């Protein structure tokens, strides 16, 4: 079972690339982030024509997450995180597919630092950690997949000095990510590539793709039962180089089917 995390950076703009990816790779589950689409304008028909059922949590022009499943309809479990009734951002969607629980996560960017956006990022992280603990207690195969907007280690970025002042690399951001992992979760891509040097994002500016000036912010975290079924993980980086591509590449983990 191949489970993919893919920040599409606008699903309407990137729909040809998404459909191309689905047709060429046939992943079993795809967790999408940054839809930038309302619920009403989500392209359900095109995705269903490609052979995928979907659940989504949209927001016009910003954020937005979805879960796609090949030849089946995901069963939604939870929309949004508890802990802040005033939070209107569409950043978390949890679904079940064939006994596997998956969450599509779009964590706040947090820039500029310091400031209210960074405080929101850290508070949102606390709420995610609480939800992850509840999922962990269910003792089921779970994958927390998404754009975490955190560069966990210096070897996860092309140049640590270049990103030193960014919210993605602040000690508080990294500490929150470590707290999440300490709850019993396995970073699948780090397990496959323990020495780092694997990027999932390349900015549109300054020729970042051409220079391979990227970093790793897309992560798929496995519960113990899912980690026991781990087979491989990687990045389908060639899709970042295609015409009108997202600035993220599809990032994936392969596990033995829980069913």
Automatic annotation (TrEMBL):
<dbReference type="Pfam" id="PF03372">
    <property type="entry name" value="Exo_endo_phos"/>
</dbReference>
<keyword id="KW-0378">Hydrolase</keyword>
<feature type="domain" description="Endonuclease/exonuclease/phosphatase">
    <location>
        <begin position="4"/>
        <end position="248"/>
    </location>
</feature>
<dbReference type="InterPro" id="IPR005135">
    <property type="entry name" value="Endo/exonuclease/phosphatase"/>
</dbReference>
<dbReference type="InterPro" id="IPR037493">
    <property type="entry name" value="ExoIII-like"/>
</dbReference>
<comment type="similarity">
    <text>Belongs to the DNA repair enzymes AP/ExoA family.</text>
</comment>
<keyword id="KW-0460">Magnesium</keyword>
<keyword id="KW-0479">Metal-binding</keyword>
<dbReference type="InterPro" id="IPR020847">
    <property type="entry name" value="AP_endonuclease_F1_BS"/>
</dbReference>
<protein>
    <submittedName>
        <fullName>Exodeoxyribonuclease III</fullName>
        <ecNumber>3.1.11.2</ecNumber>
    </submittedName>
</protein>
<dbReference type="GO" id="GO:0008311">
    <property type="term" value="F:double-stranded DNA 3'-5' DNA exonuclease activity"/>
</dbReference>
<dbReference type="InterPro" id="IPR004808">
    <property type="entry name" value="AP_endonuc_1"/>
</dbReference>
<dbReference type="InterPro" id="IPR036691">
    <property type="entry name" value="Endo/exonu/phosph_ase_sf"/>
</dbReference>
